[in-house]
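Q: Convert this sequence to structure tokens.
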Amino acid sequence: MAASRATGLTVAVTGPTGEIGKPFIAALERTREVSRILGMARRPFDPGAHGWKKTEYRRGDVLDRAAVESLVAGADVVVHLAFVILGAGDGSRHVNIEGSRNVFEAAAAAKAKRVVYASSVAAYGFPDGGGLITEDVPALGHPRHPYSAHKAEVEEVLDEALAGSGTDAYVFRPCIVAGPQAPLLVNQIPYVRLSGRLPGAVRALFDQVPVLRPVIPDPGVPFQLVHHDDVASALKAGVLGRGEPGAYNLAGAGEITMRDLADELGYYTVPVPDLAVEATAEVVARLPFLPDEATWIEAVRRPVLMDTAKARRLLRWRPRHDARETLHETVAAARGDLQPA
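A:
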């Protein structure tokens, strides 16, 4: 047996530089059962700048099968985080689906013990009906939402790639991931995106004069948040083989709405009637050549709330942050980034 396997787990990770990747690698660095971490992504990255001692990094693309095979060779566990989120339309389908296929097939061929895949609540496809969604609900995706459709399809690819192999699969379906290192929830608000390009004096004026504060539409649909550190702890449980293989929902306690987000930012909200949201979504679905980001309106048409009892029971997962705490930390960090120089 190789030395790395005798002294601890070797973990190969795609996408270690993202909003989930960095907190996850930091968690693995603190895990005594893990002795070596191999990370790969397309951007330049220096693990030493983060104080990481166990992590080795290489630049590579999941579409490059040779690079993927080199990454996972000798790994006990393969963690797949790399995924195109925004702009996840037809142009990125090849990256999301075929890149994932490369990772899963290479992991099976390398006889890895486990594959850990970060899927999403979006894989459920925003189903109608009341009640909390459990892992027994089929992950069918949504045809009008490319990100949702891709997440569901990748889960099918995972099943196909590992069929007949000795490699177990842990699939995690987090709700919206937020926190100080995951500002996407805040940064995609149009005013926030614009304010980063405004002179400091203009930004200060918007903050100080109430009448100039932005307005965020609020359809009143509740949603869940999960802190990136809590996602990291769940992924770590999968790496260590806790509980049993399978799918796990991840969400912090509590629910919020767009009004809560606006209040935290100091913005205003305007209620959007259900009928208006439905009508807008129907129009969006029929428009050709629409930016992929516009399809996210599907995500606010109805509540998509998950039951996390399985992760709590089998993995002993205990999220340390609830939705409001996570929202507060996310906005506080984003506001710090937006302060005038």
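The chain has two domains: 3-178+226-251+305-320, 184-220+257-300.
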